[in-house]
Amino acid sequence: MMTRKILILDGHPAQGSYCEALTKSYAKGAARAGHDVRVHRLAEMTFNPDFGTSDFKKAPPLEPDLQAFWDDLVWCDHLVLAHPLWWGGLPARLKGLFDRALLPGKAFKYNRGKDMPDPLLKGRSSRILMTSDTPPVFFRWIYDSSVKKQTQRQILKFVGFSPNRFSQFASMIKSTPDQRKDWLDKVEDLGRRAA
């Protein structure tokens, strides 16, 4: 098996979440398989999530934690993102991380005469690990998997990540300790395979 450079982002804005447990399991499996792993935890990062301007040319400089995340994003060939589903979408702080870090000229490039910009982070794949209280059938058929589409297509694919695989862990509120352990074991196996 080819070793990979894996960046893991625990995208939960609080410490001690099940997202943190998922990222630890993935990292454990990946490290045991010999992959090179770097981990960032949103709850430990210090930055202003508000882009704060309507002009990309006036983008505020990246704080050290955002710069470190960006550097590791460029370094990696596989991104693992764990996040909860909150009000049908990403937590605001996680969305702010993407707003601030994925900038034109770095993550994508506009070209005259083209409707869509060129992605500048090609050659990388991703795995999204989403926790939610929403049962999977409701997520798919009632809510149309909207955050999955946003994260896979409008964020990661937009800047070049592909393929972008998705795993949902639900319903968290109804899950048993045995079920949660089984999920962690499955994620550890994903890490071993860098899948």
TrEMBL record:
The keyword Oxidoreductase applies. It comes from the Bacteria. Keywords: Oxidoreductase. Residues 5-181 form the Flavodoxin-like fold domain. InterPro entries: Flavodoxin_fold, Flavoprotein-like_sf, NAD(P)H_dehydrogenase_qn. It holds the Pfam family Flavodoxin_2. Belongs to the NAD(P)H dehydrogenase (quinone) family. This is NAD(P)H-dependent oxidoreductase. It comes from Roseibium polysiphoniae.
